[in-house]
Amino acid sequence: MTMNAEKLVAAAVAAAKNAYAPYSNFHVGAALLLDNGDVVTGANFENASYGMTLCAETVAIAKANSDGQMRRIVAIAVAGGPKADDGGTTLGAEAITPCGRCRQVIKEVADEVAIDLPVYCAKQGGHDTHLLSELLPYGFGPASLK
Q1: 94 is catalytic
Q2: What is the pLDDT of residues 100-133, one digit of tens each?
Q3: Buried b (16+ CB within 10 A) or exposed e, 19-29
């Protein structure tokens, strides 16, 4: 791994420019760091049927999985906020964190790779760092089905 957290967060911020968010104008980008240093990004994709909306983290994870790379994920960054003039994200003073659904999707990945994934959450001037276990204590995962 040659990428630090700041560069991964920057990749998430850049990914937010690709958000399709005509209803909320809240652009979110996610960046996944793979164990070989590669980065996979995703952006939120809204739908007029709001429940069909895809979050940036889910898009990025599904993209990594479809490329056979899901089990290589070692860190996640997320950046979000109102649409900026340049089409990206206006970061707030407080970091956003993955929603509950995304935390559950990230839990599935964490259980597959057998690490407590770090989640970097962008904000003005930096980021907050959390472990998935802090964001989703007592999470439901594959072991819960046994």
Answers
A1: no
A2: 999 999 999 999 999 999 999 999 999 999 999 9
A3: bebeeeebbbb
Alpha helix ranges (H) inside 1-146: 5-15, 56-66, 100-113, 132-135
Catalytic position from the list 6, 46, 57, 108? 57
Instruction: Kindly report, residue by residue over 32-64, the tens digit of the pLDDT.
Output: 999 999 999 999 999 999 999 999 999 999 999
What's the pTM? 0.95
Three-state DSSP state, 120: strand
Q: How confident is the model at residue 1 (pLDDT cuts 50, 70, 90)?
A: very low
Select the CATH number that applies to the domain covering 5-145 from these four: 3.40.50.300, 3.20.20.70, 3.40.140.10, 1.10.540.10. Answer: 3.40.140.10
